[in-house]
């Protein structure tokens, strides 16, 4: 049956490979749940889940510093609102197209369900490349993007946030333009805001910290931990920096990090604060880190996954860890892999880890701490409140432990103990599917 559904999707959307990959991975692991619950098939839940409720594509014209008019394409895919308003980030990167946004929106449905918070799934972005743009250009782009997007979003409708290329600066320009156009100080319309204007403590750290909390739970379930372990973190953006920081706080040694130019290795442990300052303040390249730290070496190109480690945290982008990389990690004795990024591990590589008995935390569970903390930001906005750092961090840790335990229990209940991929997919799916049954055919 799932083969029929997938065939229909391939027929319609075969030119969207990332979307096909994300759908296939979910459908494949749902078989045991569908066998137990034929009502999902009778009510067309699968077909409805795989088709976005709404897809918005729009022109984003803006003027560069030389006075030239430029045009980018903007997207917002409002995928599923069974559990709450559409929720998910905006990605600004030249590789963005409708298929990439659909894959991210589809993943977001199940991830958001796993958080236990009332959040539907959506995603958006643009093929705009922020690299090399001035602050004024970024602002004009964000204002133009919001001039169209504002009519589709709202606290009770659709609540965007950041993703690759969209951080607090961009959220600020987007929020400013929304406020100006609508004449409403509607804090709950966006998350990832600055602390002075409705943001939440811990949102900046949340995805990286949450990923490490999840991996810590997987390790604990095996009587292990971060202490004294070598850790490799790919990427050096928002998720990577705070995953590395938390891994170090728990006693791990982060020996390698990367950016799109290559990777840096420091056997004594990377100075995470120096990477944070380099990336967040100076917008520099990781190569400069090696120039400033004589014990470090920079490898241009190549695979960061060749660096031996016990714990691997892919935190850059989709399909960055392939079969060959997974085999290298397993050969070098990896014990746990936690996906900080969305779908960073190819299907073949996931199979390598599952076959080897590596604890593997899929992104929709392991990186759910970011959107969960966005949910906590929405709670604070709704109650005109702001919580302390430690309280918010404790809520995040509790949510990640609950997600871990839910995935583990679901995997066990469906005859696949220790398989977090199956556990996350079935646990997220059944919550959304049961709600869709309650709400009727809409
Ligand atoms: N920011 C958030 O709250 C969340 C982000 N994610 C996912 O985490 C991943 C990273 O996102 P952020 O850290 O927020 O973005 P970011 O823009 O702060 O950093 C992106 C990082 O990925 C690297 N990168 C991007 N494209 C690359 C490519 N083609 N090849 C090699 N490296 C590349 C960049 O060098 C940078 O280190 C993405 O998959 C995103 O969807 C997942 C959950 C929440
Ligand atoms: O915080 C959010 O709403 C979205 C985070 C996100 O884009 C993700 O989980 O991939």
Structure description:
By secondary structure, the protein is α/β, with parallel strands linked by helices. It has two domains: 2-185, Rossmann fold (3-Layer(aba) Sandwich), CATH 3.40.50.10860; 206-361, Rossmann fold (3-Layer(aba) Sandwich). Helix content is 49%, strand content 16%. The chain is built from 17 helices and twelve strands. The protein has helices spanning 2-13, 17-36, 39-42, 45-49, 98-114, 135-149, 168-182, 203-220, 238-249, 272-281, 287-292, 323-331, 347-356, 363-366, 369-382, 389-413, 420-439; strands at 54-63, 69-80, 86-92, 121-126, 158-161, 230-234, 253-259, 262-265, 297-300, 311-314, 336-338, 359-361. The strands form two sheets. A seven-stranded mixed β-sheet has the order 9-8-7-6-10-11-12, with helices on both faces. Helix 2 packs across helix 17 (420-439). The chain is globular. The mean pLDDT is 97. The structure holds 1,4-dihydronicotinamide adenine dinucleotide and 2-oxoglutaric acid (AKG). 2-oxoglutaric acid binds next to strand 3, helix 5 and helix 15.
Write a brief caption for the model:
Belongs to the Glu/Leu/Phe/Val dehydrogenases family. The chain is α/β, with parallel strands linked by helices.
């Amino acid at each position: 049956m799932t083969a029929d559904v997938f065939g229909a999707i391939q027929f319609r959307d075969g030119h969207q490979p990332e979307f096909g990959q994300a759908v296939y991975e979910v459908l494949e692991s749902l078989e045991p749940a569908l066998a137990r619950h034929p009502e999902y098939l009778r009510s067309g839940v699968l077909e409805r889940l795989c088709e976005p409720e709404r897809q918005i594509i729009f022109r984003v014209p803006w003027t560069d510093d030389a006075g030239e008019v430029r045009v980018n394409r903007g997207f917002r895919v409002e995928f599923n609102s069974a559990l709450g308003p559409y929720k998910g980030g905006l990605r600004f990167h030249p590789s963005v197209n409708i298929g990439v946004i659909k894959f991210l929106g589809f993943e977001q449905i199940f991830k958001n369900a796993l958080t236990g918070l009332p959040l539907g799934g959506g995603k958006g972005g643009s093929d705009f490349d922020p690299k090399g743009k001035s602050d004024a250009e970024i602002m004009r782009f964000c204002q133009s993007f919001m001039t169209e997007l504002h009519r589709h979003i709202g606290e009770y409708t659709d609540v965007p946030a950041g993703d690759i290329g969209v951080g607090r600066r961009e959220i600020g320009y987007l929020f400013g333009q929304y406020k100006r156009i609508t004449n409403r100080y509607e804090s709950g319309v966006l998350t990832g805001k600055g602390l002075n204007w409705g943001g939440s403590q811990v949102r900046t750290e949340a995805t990286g910290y949450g990923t490490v909390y999840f991996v810590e739970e997987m390790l604990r379930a095996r009587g292990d931990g971060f202490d004294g372990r070598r850790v490799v973190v790919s990427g050096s953006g928002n998720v990577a920096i705070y995953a590395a920081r938390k891994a170090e706080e728990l006693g791990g040694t982060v020996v390698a990090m990367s950016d799109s130019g290559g990777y840096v290795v420091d056997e004594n442990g990377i100075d995470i604060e120096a990477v944070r300052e380099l990336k967040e303040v100076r917008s520099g390249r990781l190569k400069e880190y090696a120039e400033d730290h004589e014990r470090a070496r920079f490898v241009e190109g190549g695979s960061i996954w060749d660096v031996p480690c016990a714990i691997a945290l892919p935190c850059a982008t989709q399909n960055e860890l392939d079969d060959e990389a997974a085999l290298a990690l397993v050969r070098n004795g990896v014990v746990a892999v936690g996906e900080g990024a969305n779908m960073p591990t190819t299907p073949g590589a996931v199979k390598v880890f599952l076959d080897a008995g590596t604890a593997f935390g899929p992104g929709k569970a392991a990186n759910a701490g970011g959107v969960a903390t966005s949910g906590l930001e929405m709670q604070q906005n709704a109650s005109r409140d702001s919580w302390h750092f430690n309280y918010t961090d404790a809520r995040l840790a509790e949510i990640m432990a609950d997600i871990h335990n839910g995935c583990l229990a679901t995997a066990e209940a469906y005859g696949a103990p220790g398989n977090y991929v199956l556990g996350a997919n079935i646990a997220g799916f059944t919550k959304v599917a049961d709600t869709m049954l309650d709400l009727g055919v809409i």
